[in-house]
Structures
1.
Amino acid sequence: MEGLLWKWQLGPGYTGDQGNGRALWSPTTPSAATHTTASVSPETSDVTRQGRRAGDDLTMNTNTDPKARVSLNVAGQGEPERKRKPTVAADSLSHRDLRSGDFWRSLPAFTDIDEPTFLDHRWQAKHSITKVDKLLGVLEGLVHKRFFDDLRQGFSSAPMAVRVSPYMLSLIDWANPYDDPIRRQFLPVGSEILPDHPKLDLDSLHEQEDAPVAGLTHRYPDKALFLALDTCPVYCRFCTRSYAVGTNTEEVEKVSLKASVARWEEAFSYVESRDELEDVVISGGDSYQLRADHIRQIGNRLLDIDHIRRMRFASKGPAVMPQKLLTDDDWVDALTEVVDRGRRMHKEVVLHTHFNHPNEITEITARALNRLFERGIVVRNQSVLQRGVNDDPATMTTLVKRLSWLNAHPYYVYQHDMVKGVETLRTTVQTALDLEKQIRGVTAGFNTPVFVVDAPGGGGKRDAHSYEYYNRETGVSVYKSPNVNADALYCYFDPIYSLSERGRERWADPANHDAIVAEAVAAARSGEHR
Ligand code: SF4
């Protein structure tokens, strides 16, 4: 670029200042509509400092006269060609097409359910399905007996209790339930069960090891995770907290974290005693299950601690039962009061939610999220990357754009944790890396999720790309987490079904397991980056 002479073509009201290479606008001379040229050097031009190059089209909107524009062009090439992007294909805007109407009536059991009933959160909670026989009643005639037998086997061997709202059930494509992304997240089928990875723990994130009091995890220096209760409006198969959340199953006896004011007070006292804590996540279980007075009690107690500056109520509710945000006024008012009080205290209180697939977002969701937006409640979304649910670029792009359309910020996409009984839903770290590449750039950066691995063993969330070492043959990726433990290395394991034949052979013999891990850790320590 050095040595190039640039020519400014100035519209009415502009003059070229050849001394310093800047275009000046003179509002008093609009009639002097001659095109003036000024030679400027790129080193001194404001335009050049903004990274423009020869041939770029530049419009300065400082003048209210639309004709008063400044064009940047290489000397001698005349008026630059104005380029318009081609019209986009209609399906590229499909994220705006939200499902509407009384879609739930296609389920035999809901044929007579009118809209006010379907929008009533109490009706949704009361008619949520927890038993396979009850599900049979709702789906009578819709699914094949073979699928139903498969479901029955899935229910009996799942480590997570089953609970699914009528809203979710009515969004499933029952003509093809095996491939449906919502069915895959909530309703286990026996034929999909794969053996767990040999390196899997029930509490793979070791949340209990970092819990100074029951139900409060303090891992990062300034942040704590407060588990207020152990129930949710639905139970997700992929839940990382299947060690505590939901009722006992045939496979797992759960750690008890019941809603208890006495237990909460122990947690609050701990938070109060730790001056370094600034940020509390209120989760569970799910904040949707907290009574309105409990939202106020927890919110205000934490707001009253001077060093707490940020709080996030975590709830999957907006994704699985948006009706509550439309019909449970007391709950929404309670959250609004805490958010407003926080704002007056210059503290941030937001809602974190959990949509995983664009099909979960309907016109009912839009109404619910709009209600929160009108009240100034910031909503951020955390998704879990799941095989056959959202592990392809088109689905993830639509999810990100649909959330952005409704002002819910796509914040994180989590690599699926190593959770018992759901190996079929896990993907490789490579899948996350590939997806991230496809997603970045589809919308603004602040609406682009960060893909993270919550490092098993308690390393916390690491950018998926930040591994020290990744062996794609054995599926072992190794992460560091200096702010949690400067010396430790944390390993994530790709699901064995996804590995090459050679990789599967190595894991097939338990005698190799320690060596596979030791080899990855040694490579990470030696700085070998694969
Ligand atoms: S709503 Fe959240 S805490 Fe509850 S089961 Fe689902 S993922 Fe787990």
2.
Amino acid sequence: MDGSKSKLINSLSKLKADAVKAGLTLTEVEHVLLAKCSDSAKREGHASALAGQGSGEHASGNSAGSRSLPSALITVFFRFLIPLLLCSAGALSCLHYFGHLSSLTGILTENPCLLEANLLLVEISRPIEKCDFCEGLTSFPTYRDISREDYLDIHAYTGRPALIQEGGTKNWTAPDVFSVKFFQNLYKDNERALEAQENCQFFPYKSGIESFEEFLNMSDEKADFKEEPWYVGWSNCDTVIATELRRHYTLPHFLPEGSESSITDWIFLGGPGHGANVHIDSVDRPSWQAQIRGSKTWTLIPPPECEHVCHEINATMVKGSVIVVDTNRWYHKTDIHPGGISITIGSEYD
Ligand SMILES: O=C(O)CCC(=O)C(=O)O
Ligand SMILES: [Fe+2]
């Protein structure tokens, strides 16, 4: 994680822990911060940036949502609201608060663009972890294939990630079929699907492609990276398209029996040199993701309260591998490798 971001997250994490020690519930902390935030944001016309639905940086990726919080708002939260709550709860935490506050406001003043990410908002409401999900992991658990029993025992609901190199995508036709053109043709001229996508998520990252429609209308030259490189992701909200996508893949065999993969598929694709910035999500369940074409590295970073027992770990996916990550608990980022387009498909499972 880059220095400013990690300092910011650390400060916020300590601040939150102090607030909880002082007797506030997480919901109270969240309520004060986010409720105030969205009221003022509406006045500023930035409601969608702060709606908080969806997943961390993902939520900020909505085309209407990549806005920064007005700095006046930050001043209001940190200068007045938290001190009021904490100082009424106890003098010691009040002192702690001012320590963390000054480092936090310092970081934000020097790096106002940090606020563009929803990182701050997700960090505020994220539960404080007990760290058993990451404790002792010094490298990414990796398997050529894994049985359902082992997967259930070790990974399914423990938050411990896994990389399955070969066994998860047998007999899929997706690698022969999925391409930019395939996705463009699938949605184009399909009014119902396009309408459904309006309520779904699109993440432009730093691609300059501001909307799903713009992605669909991208020229062949741009799609082939003959112009600026790009990287985007979206969730599919149309059931007919979901059925079409699922003709080309099946659920990885090791997922728990009877587990229902969410009907929402997540597709991420784009070129070398790009990827998703560090973020943590606020989705309902753990996620799996399969690499259809190209190669990318996932870096998982434990939350600050677990740094004393947990480590950053990473895994490189190549065509045919499947990764499983609880993206609500691990901060994560991805980097696409040189050598052509990276295409992944994935979903959540219960
Ligand atoms: O695949 C990527 O580049 C990012 C995926 C991600 O952030 C997620 O699935 O939560
Ligand atoms: Fe994510």
